[in-house]
Amino acid sequence: MAEIKDRENALIMETTKGNVVIEMFPDLAPGHVARIKELAREGAYD
Fold it and tell me: Using one digit for the tens of pLDDT, what is the confidence trace for 2-46?
């Protein structure tokens, strides 16, 4: 797997075909990143 530069701002989706890493950029979209993190912590993407 590729190195994750900023673990605080990365999502890892586990699929049957392997993992997908999504890097988020809070400097470009702070509200969106905050909301995605909130939803992830609540289990919305489980």
Answer: 688 899 999 999 999 999 999 999 999 999 999 999 999 999 988
Q: What is the largest CA-CA distance in the chain?
A: 32
Segments making up each domain of the chain, as ranges: 7-42
Q: Model pTM?
A: 0.78
d(Cα 26, Cα 11) in Å, to the nearest integer?
A: 13
Quote the CA–CA distance of 23 and 11 in Å, as a whole number: 7
Q: Alpha-carbon distance 34 to 15, whole Å?
A: 24
Selection from 15, 18, 21 nearest residue 2 by Cα: 21
DSSP for residue 36 = H
